[in-house]
Amino acid sequence: MYLSNIFTNSEMQEKYIDIFTSSFLPLVKGALYNTLPLTFIAFGIGLVLAVITALMRLSGSKILRGMARVYVSLIRGTPLLVQLFIIFFGLPSVGVTINPLISAVIGFSLNMGAYNSEVIRAAILSIPKGQWEAAESIGMSHTQMLRRIIFPQATRVSIPPLSNSFIGLVKDTSLASLITYSEMFRKAQEIASQNYEFLLVYSEAALIYWIICVALTFVQDRVENRLERYVS
């Protein structure tokens, strides 16, 4: 009986190792070819939206400020998953059909734009008013002030929270699996549905997410340390 248990346990261990090793490459491919590209594209577009929205919030136009407030309030006040479902499952009911990748890019970009606009707005407001006044006194236009004086300093201030936002987006992309986009977690679901080893496969996916986030955190720390060299 004892020998039988050892034999059975050995077989189970070999089975788990085989599942782990056979699943690893497809999951990594899902991360490299789908998860990370989605993250970079959505974050890049979202960053552009964030800058535009932050400038609208700081503009002298009540209309622009109002539009920006409504956008930020709408996105921050509704769940990301609901936004993705509206784009992918809801819009076809009014004749607008968008494929999973574009739907995910739109959803994540709008979300990043709203949240990061507050980061950028706060970074711009953190610049002392004296620097604005000094730039005006030497005849700089508003655009020149932003480009030469304000944005370089605001960038340094906003790097840490924006980096955290980027790392968070890497994990949030797993929600795209629910609109059938084949990112890493979707691959894990497909693999687990075939071998029924949900705990093992999902834990493996979690491990890969963790490794990616650790690597990105290392890069974030290096960037922040480099920027600190220029702080007096």
From TrEMBL:
Membrane-spanning parts: 36-58, 70-91, 199-219
Keyword annotations from UniProtKB, A to Z: Amino-acid transport, Cell membrane, Membrane, Transmembrane, Transmembrane helix, Transport
Pfam families: BPD_transp_1
Record carries keyword Membrane: yes
Residue span(s) of domain ABC transmembrane type-1: 32-220
InterPro entries assigned: AA_ABC_transptr_permease_3TM, ArtM/GltK/GlnP/TcyL/YhdX-like, MetI-like, MetI-like_sf
Chief localisation class: membrane
Gene Ontology annotations for the cellular component aspect, listed alphabetically: ATP-binding cassette (ABC) transporter complex
Membrane topology: Multi-pass membrane protein
Top-level taxonomic group: Bacteria
Family annotation (CDD domains): TM_PBP2 (cd06261)
Compartment(s) where it occurs, according to its Swiss-Prot or TrEMBL record: Cell membrane
GO molecular function, one term: L-cystine transmembrane transporter activity
Family recorded in the similarity comment: Belongs to the binding-protein-dependent transport system permease family.
Protein name in the entry: Amino acid ABC transporter permease
